[in-house]
Design a protein that fits this description.
Blueprint lengths: L5 H7 L1 E3 L2 E4 L4 E4 L2 E4 L2 H12 L5 E2 H9 L6 H15 L9 E4 L3 E4 L3 E2 L61 E8 L5 E6 L5 E6 L9 E6 L6 E2 L7 E6 L5 E8 L4 E8 L6 E5 L7 E3 L5 E7 L7 E7 L5 E3 L9 E7 L5 E9 L2 E8 L6 E2 L8 E6 L5 E6 L6 E6 L6 E2 L7 E6 L5 E17 L11 E3 L6 E6 L6 E5 L6 E5 L7 E2 L9 E5 L5 E6 L6 E6 L6 E2 L7 E6 L5 E9 L1 E8 L6 E2 L7 E4 L5 E5 L6 E5 L6 E4 L10 E3 L3 E6 L4 E6 L6 E4 L12 E3 L5 E20 L2
Antiparallel strand pairs: 1-2, 1-8, 2-3, 3-4, 5-7, 6-7, 9-54, 10-11, 11-12, 12-13, 14-15, 15-16, 16-17, 18-19, 19-20, 20-21, 22-23, 23-24, 24-25, 26-27, 27-28, 28-29, 30-31, 31-32, 31-54, 33-34, 34-35, 35-36, 37-38, 38-39, 39-40, 41-42, 42-43, 43-44, 45-46, 46-47, 47-48, 49-50, 50-51, 51-52, ...
Helix pairs in contact: 2-3, 2-4
Length: 719
């Protein structure tokens, strides 16, 4: 029941706070400030206004605003985000629109029909301002100013959002993003020089007989120049504060030891600075030139990764952080411009990293992105030290985010590139580099004979110029579901195995769907996606684009599979202590924990009597009766990174093996693993990429055709 008449809202207009809403003109007005809005945004605002302060569910908004148009919940989330920006509202401290987690939205200010007299254009709110004076969230964070807009690379030059600091946002500078390194092969650990005029990276040239070396390239230059020439792997370049030297890590193969070196950028003899820490994978040089920061295994023998400081002059090493038990540890340290703080990545588990800062003199770290879902692939300081830039897949593909050091919600930097990782910011010169990485993945079908052995060569399925992965046969064998970015964004698809009758089931446009699984009647497809920050389970009809949410907890729910009778869904959740397998009714409802001691993906046996599952922290596959009992390990050599690439057959398990990569078959009678097929190319990690047809006569699997990575540079003009 509506508390406010919708017809009156549409015909007469109304006010929310200082804004006058004029639906017929599709605009909102305050004083001399006028903002044109998309009709859908006006409709969303009217629906919220007509509820009189009550919660309007996501489903109600989708039904009322989009009616018969098939859109996803992500479309609604984007619409609300755009509406908030127009109203100059804040997600962390909302004054107009409040998000009710996993439910919907409500309007916080009363609706008025008496239109206000024109007033002055609202400026940024001062501290302690009242709800009528709204601080523009997209233009304001504490401390000083660091503006970062972006343009479309190529024919378009589109100035985007300015990320600013201070009481008045200066005019947004224009950024030009361009490819900097497009070399064949992988370019690891790109780091821009302090002056912003060169980029250093590790690379193995195609015509080189040695392993990886350190190279530098002048920004905008033609060819890279080799700095080191070693037969042993060299990596992790870190610039000295004057930009004259590079520190790096070299693994001496014959001596089986790892050392830290420094070399002048024009080449010459290298200076040994000390030994690497055990398990080291990061390196940074302090602004005063006296200290190196790096990670490594904690000295307490816990196996947790910690941060260390190495005094270059004395060679003294000090452990700076002591991460709590139960997490992977700390990595990726970066010194603040004044040298007083370190920013770093705290790896919580397989699907979550936090961004934290700690004083170089010691003390307790302060977490800036606590309880956020998503992995982090690089962090660095903004030039003024007031905010951090980090790469994260918190909403799907890896993208660039900014978080204020003083505290606040991370804001996505609208850089228009895919899979943004390893950001590196120059201390001067207004430049930033980052690495993009793309796997081109294809789906292949391998015929099997009656005994389960390979019969002939695999056949390419679902061919396109984009990537297809995570295939799964329908229970009737009449089609497959898979994940693809062939529409421009990564979505859930299904169709016949020959590529005909394709249906796109999601329209997420950002959040990544994963782990598709069919219901036994082949009418529904289960998948997970992180639409609201943490991952939830969704189900969609075979011919529909309207997924329905099944879980609403503030934890992560992933890797769903149906029971053989279709009445239950097994899934992984970290809602209590660590990841375990849970079970709930297929229509949603109360869930019960199934495993103890860890569980991350489960499949019922073909007869429905036993449950097979993997653990996130221990290699191998376990089984336990569906009715309960003592679990036992049935397979030991499934790698942790391949937790999803296995499938049950009548007499055993097909699974992915590494070193070399093969698809193997392990019989339940404990006979040695049989090699079924050895792919000619690499297969993906960390996903479900093997599926067996219902008749047991063919396997679907994903294989990486090729990988491309580039290092991009952004010139920030006017910074």
């Amino acid at each position: 029941m509506r508390a406010v008449d919708e017809a009156a809202l549409r015909s007469e207009g109304f006010t929310v706070g200082q804004w006058r809403v004029e639906p017929r003109r599709q605009r909102i007005v305050h004083g001399d400030l006028e903002k044109r809005l998309d009709p859908r945004l006006i409709d969303v605002l009217i629906e919220l206004a007509s509820a009189g302060g009550e919660v309007v569910t996501r489903g109600q908004l989708l039904d009322m605003v989009w009616k018969d148009t098939h859109v996803s919940e992500n479309t609604l989330s984007q619409a609300v985000s755009r509406l908030r920006r127009a109203l100059e509202d804040s997600t962390s401290q909302p004054r107009f629109i409040e998000t009710i987690s996993k439910s919907g939205y409500r309007l916080l200010v009363p609706v008025g029909f008496e239109l206000r007299k024109p007033g002055p254009v609202p400026q940024q709110a001062a501290t302690g301002s009242q709800p009528g004076n709204v601080e523009p969230q997209s233009l304001s964070v504490p401390v000083r100013s660091w503006l970062l807009p972006w343009v479309v690379v190529g024919a378009l030059a589109l100035a985007l959002v300015a990320l600013g600091l201070g009481r008045e946002a200066p005019e947004a500078p224009v950024a030009v993003v361009r490819p900097e390194l497009t070399l064949v092969g992988n370019q690891f650990g790109p780091r821009i020089s302090p002056a912003g005029d060169h980029v250093a990276f590790a690379w193995q040239a195609p015509d080189s007989t040695s392993s990886f070396d350190i190279w530098i390239q002048q920004i905008g230059g033609d060819s890279p120049v080799r700095v080191t020439n070693s037969p042993d792997p060299v990596r992790l370049p870190a610039w000295s504060p004057d930009g004259q030297r590079l520190a790096y890590v070299e693994v001496l193969q014959e001596q089986r030891e790892c050392s830290l070196f420094a070399v002048h950028v024009v080449g010459g003899p290298a200076e040994r600075l000390g030994e690497c820490a055990e398990g080291q994978r990061s390196l940074a040089w302090s602004p005063d030139g006296r200290t190196l920061a790096h990670d490594g295994l904690s000295l307490d023998g816990s196996g947790v990764r910690a941060l260390f400081l190495l005094e270059i002059a004395s060679g003294k090493r000090t452990q700076l952080t002591s991460p709590p038990a139960g997490i992977v540890g700390d990595t990726g340290p970066r010194f603040s411009p004044d040298g007083r703080m370190l920013a770093f990545e705290r790896e919580i588990g397989a699907s979550r990293d936090d961004i934290a800062v700690i004083a170089v003199r010691g003390g307790e770290p302060r977490t800036l992105t606590k309880d956020a879902w998503g992995k982090v692939r690089g962090v660095d300081w903004a030039s003024d030290g007031g905010s951090l830039l980090f790469a994260s897949n918190r909403v799907g593909q890896y993208s660039l985010w900014r978080v204020p050091v003083a505290g606040g919600e991370p804001a996505r930097v609208p850089i228009l590139d895919a899979w943004v990782t390893q950001p590196s910011v120059s201390r001067a010169g207004g430049r930033l580099t980052y690495r993009t990485f793309r796997d081109a993945v294809d789906i292949w079908e391998l015929p099997l004979d009656a005994s389960g052995e390979a019969r002939g060569e695999p056949v390419l399925r679902m061919p396109s110029t984009r990537s297809e992965r995570q295939p799964t046969w329908s229970p009737r064998g009449d089609g497959i579901a898979f994940i693809s970015d062939r529409s421009g964004s990564t979505e859930l698809w299904s169709g016949h195995v020959d590529g005909s009758d394709l249906v796109r089931h999601t329209d997420l446009n950002g959040p990544l769907p994963a782990s598709p699984a069919w219901s036994p009647d082949a009418k529904r497809i289960l998948f997970d996606a992180a639409i609201d920050g943490d991952s939830d389970l969704f189900v969609v009809d075979r011919q529909s684009r309207r997924p329905q949410r099944l879980t609403t907890e503030s934890s992560e729910e992933r890797n769903g599979t149906f029971s053989r009778d279709g009445t239950q869904i097994y899934f992984a959740s970290n809602r209590l202590d660590g990841w375990e397998v849970w079970r709930m009714p297929a229509i949603g409802g109360t869930a019960l924990r199934v495993t103890t001691g860890g569980g991350f993906l489960a499949q019922e046996s073909l007869d429905g009597r036993d449950l097979f599952y993997v653990r996130q922290e221990q290699p191998g596959i376990w089984t336990v009766p569906v009715v309960g009992g003592v679990p036992r390990q049935v397979l030991a050599d499934l790698d942790l990174a391949d937790w999803g690439s296995w499938v049950l057959a009548t007499e055993g398990i097909y699974y992915l093996r590494r070193g070399p990569t093969t698809i193997g078959f392990a019989n339940f009678d404990s006979t040695p693993t049989q090699v079924v097929f050895e792919p000619s190319k690499q297969m993906p990690y960390l996903s479900r990429d093997v599926s067996l047809s219902p008749d047991g006569r063919s396997l679907l699997f994903s294989m990486i055709d090729h990988s491309d990575d580039e290092v991009m540079t952004a010139d920030l003009i006017g910074l």
